[in-house]
Amino acid sequence: MPLNDTKLRRIDGKPYDGPSEIADGGGLSARISPKGLITFQYRYRINGKPARLKLGTYGQMSIREAREAMEECKKWLEEGRDPAIQRKMNKAKVSQSPSISMLVDEWLESPSVKSLVKFDYWKRMLKLHVTDNYGKLIANEMDPVEWEKIFLRITKAGSPVQAGNVLVKMKQVIRYALRRKRITSNSLMLLELNDIGSRPEDGERFLNDDEIGVFWNAIDRTKMSWQNKMLIRIVALTGCRGVELRLAKKGDFDLKGREWVIPKENSKTRKRFVRGISNLAADYLQQVFDIYPNLSIVFPPTKLQEDRPMSASTLISLAEQVEDVMGGDHWSLHDLRRTCKTKMAELGVAPHVSEKILGHKLTGMLAIYDQYDYIPEQQEAAELWAKKIQDCAESSPLSLQN
User: How far apart, in whole angstroms, are the C-alpha atoms of residue 20 and residue 218?
Assistant: First the structure.
């Protein structure tokens, strides 16, 4: 009679005095000790000699899994390979296979990744969403359904866009591991973004004139430090990416000449560029410089006052704090860049000048032949934008409540 769960459950873990071996067929049997320990084994012949191989223990291995293991052994025999040796080799491969944490760490240590402007952010996100909970899992043993659970957990927590972002980054991790032959499984690549989350919506949000005024006045009504208030004002005035200002050093600025050099390591395009700034932005920067005269970083951690950039998490929270005071529709720090670009267009600023201010690459033939920085034109545009902000702030209602 073939083995069945009813029979084995009745024996498992209980005193037993029946036959020491119960056959299932095809060479598979269950060996039973007097204490009721049930072990699956496979009997076969190799090179004309009898052999016996332990497949697993009942409770840790099901009857179905034992039968599948036996069929695998039969295939090896047909190929002239000893199943006992093959199983040892497979176990050795599994023990040497890298975990998800190992692959993430190796990816983070690669030169191209360490140069990412948002390196600290992604290191933190992968730790929070992947390695803290799933880091010990072996990547080669993961199937698409098991991978899917990781990202669906992020989606169920209310962050479908973040789930998609983390999936994209983990695919980069796995591709890096595959190129280096650290793993052989590419099962994660079978997952599509729509399976687990959603794409970020195309950015359309920008602040209108009334919102610009309320925004500017709301900054002083937040509880953030004076330094952080200056940071978000300068972000708005310059149209910069927040990370560019967070990483900026005093040596990057010529305040008298009203120029800001963004080095290639801080630039999203990985190319150095020069931004013209307004007198108001230069004045604010000088005030910030004077707070920490002996530090090279413009915006160090407020409390520690060490000569290093403030954390990325601080930057992320600034817009939220101002938004809480403002009320109204949601906006993000990046939407200030879109506001700058949109309002400059209304003010008659030429598109290629505002593109230079934002640090975008020019397109088409301009990108090839036009290497002029347009600094005077940028500075003129920055002055128009600064005046626009101040005009909006002056005409804005002053009835904001703390």
Answer: 81
Strand pairing class (28-32; 253-254)? unpaired
Report H helices in 46-159. Answer: 63-78, 83-96, 100-108, 111-114, 119-126, 132-134, 144-156
* Greatest Cα-to-Cα distance within the chain, rounded to the nearest angstrom: 97
HSE toward the beta carbon, residue 254, CA cutoff 13 A: 9
| Tokens 């029946």 sit on residue | 18
**DSSP label of 175:** H
Sequence letter at residue 291: I
Alpha-carbon span 342 to 324, nearest angstrom: 24
Identify which of 323, 325, 324, 357 has the alpha carbon closest to the alpha carbon of residue 338. 357
| Helix, strand, coil in percent for the chain, rounding step 5 | 55, 10, 35
Are residues 402 and 361 in contact, defined by beta-carbon separation less than 8 angstroms?
Answer: no
| 125: Cβ contacts below 8 Å, ≥ 6 apart | 162, 165, 166, 169
Which residues, in sequence order, are CB contacts of 154 under 8 Å at separation 6+? 129, 160, 162, 163, 166, 196, 197
- Count of residues making up the chain: 402
Q: Which pLDDT tens digit goes with each residue over 114-170?
A: 876 678 878 988 999 999 999 999 888 889 999 999 999 988 887 788 888 899 899
